[in-house]
């Protein structure tokens, strides 16, 4: 139990001795960017809808994904109506 208390004391001393970040490294002031209007994105629905005799076609394949734990193979699929 005493070791834990000593460990917390060392961590507290280390955290209080950390110097603040210089102002040259601080994040830029975002008040100016907040006053600018955001760009508008317009979403248009599709002009054509599949008819009553339309069929759904799909193409599937296996793709490699590079992750921190290593390369993995994942299934991918792309579908469309005709």
- How helix-rich are the residues, as a percent range? 10-25%
Shape: flat
Topology, number of strands: 2
* Backbone CA Rg: 28 Å
Q: Class by helix and strand content?
A: alpha+beta
Count of helical regions: 2
Q: Low-confidence segments, ≥5 residues, pLDDT <50?
A: none
Beta content comes to 25-35%
Instruction: Outline the biggest β-sheet.
Output: 2 strands, antiparallel
- What is the N-to-C succession of helices and strands? HHEE
Ends distance = 71 Å
Blueprint (SSEs and pairs):
Blueprint: H1 2-16, H2 31-35, E1 56-67, E2 70-81
Antiparallel strand pairs: 1-2
Explained architecture:
Helix content is 24%, strand content 29%. With 82 residues, the chain is an alpha+beta fold. The protein has a domain at 56-82. A two-stranded antiparallel sheet has the order 1-2. A hairpin with a 2-residue loop joins strand 1 (56-67) and strand 2. The model has no long low-confidence stretch (mean pLDDT 76).
């Amino acid at each position: 139990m005493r070791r834990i208390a000593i460990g917390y004391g060392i961590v507290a001393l280390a955290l209080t001795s950390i110097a603040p970040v210089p102002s040259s490294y601080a994040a830029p002031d975002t008040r100016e960017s907040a006053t600018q209007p955001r760009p508008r994105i317009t979403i248009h629905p599709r002009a054509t809808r599949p008819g009553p005799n339309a069929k759904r076609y799909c193409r599937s394949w296996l793709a490699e994904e590079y992750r921190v734990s290593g390369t993995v193979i994942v299934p991918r699929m792309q579908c469309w109506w005709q």
